[in-house]
Amino acid sequence: MSEIKDILGEIGYSNIMDNGKEYRMRPIYRDSGNSTSLKVDKKSGHFIDFSANIKGSLSDLVKLTLNLKTSKEAVKWVSQKGISTQTYSSQKPEIKHPKIYSLEYLDKLIPDHSYWVKRGVPLDVIELFRGGIANQGRMKGRYVFPIFNSSKSIVGFSGRDLLPSPTRPKWKHFGEKSKWKYPLHLNYQEIKQRKKVILVESIGDMLSLWNAGYKHSLITFGVDVSVELINVLLKIDPDKIFICLNNDANSSQAGNIAAEKISTKLKKYFDSSQIKIKLPTKNDFGVMDKNEINNWANG
Asked: Domains in the chain, please, with CATH?
């Protein structure tokens, strides 16, 4: 049986990047300057063109690339190379959908936003995110943000601790965090228009930036960037991606080191000119006021 890479080469693809379980390359059936926008699974041959939001089977890619008239022609072409479309169809990976939580969970949250208001976030801003305080369950004593997907369904929760306890983590998450693309349900158009993205660690950082007029951030929920976020960035293909994790220069250096690692990771998919590490001038944006954030942005 022919290798997927051989097939790709035969239909005109070059500079094919080996990326673990997949190949990455520039789509040649349309104008594109992005050398990693097209992903092809090594086993199944299924492809995704992130920027154009196109996906399909190996024969679909052949049809698109060779500009064939019908899918039947493409299936025949693939079969002649010794690849059974039925075999590759059976190898298609199982798609796991994140758990969806009932909107009724929002009714259990106390609409007390005073914690964030005292930190300088106006009420009309914090109310956009539909959070509240949990007084029961695993999130008790936390201000909880529901994590929405693009369909406005809840796929998880992120809670900021409100109790003065050194043994409790500052943030606690429920749901498949690696699948979250937050707060894209609110700022997708803003990011598309600006063609810029600010990557931050937490919801608190995002709120401070939002309040200062910088609404084009995405949250990593930690010190790494997930595959889902990378896929979103590939689809948007921004002119600039700012990596703005916590500035831990005076302590553990964790955010600084992680920012370098994320930069290296993103440069596998984007041109170096699109990536910039721009850490906050203080430990994080949550402890910076509007003037300090504006000075950071213009610096």
From this structure: 4-90 (3.90.580.10), 96-180 (3.90.980.10), 183-299 (3.40.1360.10)
